[in-house]
């Protein structure tokens, strides 16, 4: 069977050239006679892969000099507790509540201190993020940090700006990291599960500002201290070698294909096509406030659960996979990460028009 169009929210589409290269790497990596997943993480060959991944990520994020880049495990979900466990230490942190992921992060942070919520769109079904300038002055001046989710994968909303705050900022960028040019360096901690724009699941990228390190709790269990992983370049224990390799290749693919400006231009053009299809007729209805729309995960509905189900099922039969909305909210969602080809978006828009013609 040939490959189909992949609109999955994650694990998600990766560049075809990277998948092909990875196939070969699994068999015999760089002519060593060993498959990549069969070699020691302490071999010179693998150390070079990890160093290159670190260097490329530092360059792409613009944090190479200011932040430690860590390759951890446990998913972005483990960062929900690792951040407050290391940094909050009984103080107060502000959490912007823009979706289920923020809510999960809040729940974990409450174990380690006081959580203040300067904005929540919960009562509106998380259909929006706060607009710039509307919430920042509610952040207590003694907040240890502010945490926000740059892109709410489930509802399909995204911050169109980097907040401007005097206190340290922590961002969960799991579903829009490396999708656009942004001031990553404005954040003290950036974390992201790899399985959307970066690579396979099993790796969590964490970038920690170097001058934050002294504030971390030194008395935590070894594996839960950022300091442990910083001191050992993410090699205190066996790191997820295959995901690190794929992330390195994906970063190379981004750099070879115009970097973040080119990713952003394509992502915006693709999102514009889908939103134009949603807004073009009364048949479709977007699920989020227009000024909060995500360029990664447009969400929409026909207004009927039954028709939505017919849509994603018949789309799957036509080779358009993963269009079912998140199980907690229903509806439809087209996740369109960096590696999604334009042909997939064109096929989706055509299918939406045809579906409307036959079901409208
Ligand atoms: C924004 C966001 N944060 C956190 C998570 C949880 O990530 P993980 O499954 O890596 O723990 C997800 C997963 O989809 C996500 O989209």
Order of the strands making up the biggest sheet:
2-10-9-8-5-3-4
**What is the makeup of the main sheet?**
7 strands, mixed
How far apart are the termini? 32 Å
Shape: globular
- Low-pLDDT stretches: none
Count of helix runs: 9
Mean pLDDT: 97
> Any idea what the radius of gyration is?
21 Å
What name does the CATH topology of the largest domain carry?
A: Aspartate Aminotransferase, domain 2
The appropriate CATH architecture of the largest domain is: 3-Layer(aba) Sandwich
Say how many strands there are: 14
CATH superfamily of the largest domain: Type I PLP-dependent aspartate aminotransferase-like (Major domain)
How many structurally independent domains? 2
CATH class wording of the largest domain: Alpha Beta
- Percent of residues in helices: 25-40%
The structure class reads: alpha/beta
Order of helices and strands: EHHEHEHEEEEEEEHHHEEHEEH
Ligand set? pyridoxal-5'-phosphate
Strand content: 5-15%
Structure description:
The chain has 360 residues and is of the alpha/beta class. The protein has 2 domains: 5-9 and 258-359, Aspartate Aminotransferase, domain 1, CATH 3.90.1150.10; 16-256, 3-Layer(aba) Sandwich (Aspartate Aminotransferase, domain 2). The chain is 36% helix and 13% strand. The chain has helices spanning 16-27, 44-61, 75-87, 100-109, 226-231, 241-256, 259-280, 305-317, 342-359, and strands spanning 5-6, 67-72, 92-95, 114-116, 146-149, 151-152, 157-158, 169-172, 189-193, 204-209, 285-286, 299-301, 320-321, 332-333. A 7-stranded mixed β-sheet has the order 2-10-9-8-5-3-4, with helices on both faces. Strands 11-12-14 form a 3-stranded antiparallel β-sheet. The chain has a two-stranded parallel ribbon with strand order 1-13. It is globular. The two termini are 32 Å apart. Pyridoxal-5'-phosphate binds at residues 10, 75-77, 101, 149, 153, 172, 174-175, 193.
